[in-house]
């Protein structure tokens, strides 16, 4: 008999690693809701992430991001795509691991650049050319890795299938 697949699965990792895309695919496989916290922030703020950054700065965004993570009414079983910076601020990573299982979708900086060709919706990188973005990722990933590494599972994300992701979280 198939084991019950329940609980909250949080996908974490750098911008462009595929959290939003893979969260939808995994939720479809599990027949459960998908929540993209960036979309919830846009709904709560009534403006785009780029406009929110422009009006309130990154610090203001991080406060709203934490509030959205903590206060969302999660169904018992769901897949949650987080924003790339979310695990690295306040107590967010501890909160995630207390409330569900987390998966770090790990990718090399050059692979991330190739996935980040559309940058206009990502205020931190929207005006960068490819070489500047690569440098930015190498530095930021170094700062963020200690947080991402606290995930329940760490997966190489470049060629990851949704099936493999499901088998990891529900072995
Ligand atoms: N398996 C894949 N192959 C090629 N491109 C992908 C794949 N998964 C995602 N992408 C693309 O990579 C970009 C980043 O994906 P996204 O899911 O938005 O990442 P994140 O939410 O982690 O920032 C998007 O343009 C998306 O269409
Ligand atoms: O890495 C970051 O600090 C951010 C990542 C974005 O989400 P994605 O990782 O889905 O692009 C979004 O939350 C915001 O632009 C800030
Ligand atoms: Mg996303």
UniProtKB/TrEMBL annotation:
For ATP, which residues are the binding ones? Answer: 16-21, 122
Q: In which pathway does it act?
A: Metabolic intermediate biosynthesis; chorismate biosynthesis; chorismate from D-erythrose 4-phosphate and phosphoenolpyruvate: step 5/7
| Needed cofactors | Mg(2+)
Q: How is the cofactor bound?
A: Binds 1 Mg(2+) ion per subunit.
Location within or outside the cell: Cytoplasm
According to UniProt, the reaction catalysed is: shikimate + ATP = 3-phosphoshikimate + ADP + H(+)
One GO CC annotation, please?
A: cytosol
- Documented EC number(s): 2.7.1.71
Superkingdom assignment? Bacteria
Q: Which positions does UniProt annotate for Mg(2+) binding? A: 20
Keywords assigned by UniProt, alphabetized: Amino-acid biosynthesis, Aromatic amino acid biosynthesis, ATP-binding, Cytoplasm, Kinase, Magnesium, Metal-binding, Nucleotide-binding, Transferase
A single Gene Ontology molecular function, please? shikimate kinase activity
Residues recorded as binding substrate, renumbered to this chain, are 38, 62, 84, 144
Q: A Pfam family matched by this chain, by name?
A: SKI
- Report the function annotation for this chain: Catalyzes the specific phosphorylation of the 3-hydroxyl group of shikimic acid using ATP as a cosubstrate.
Family indicated by similarity = Belongs to the shikimate kinase family.
Q: How does it assemble?
A: Monomer.
Q: What is this protein's name?
A: Shikimate kinase
Task: Identify the species of origin.
Answer: Pedobacter yulinensis
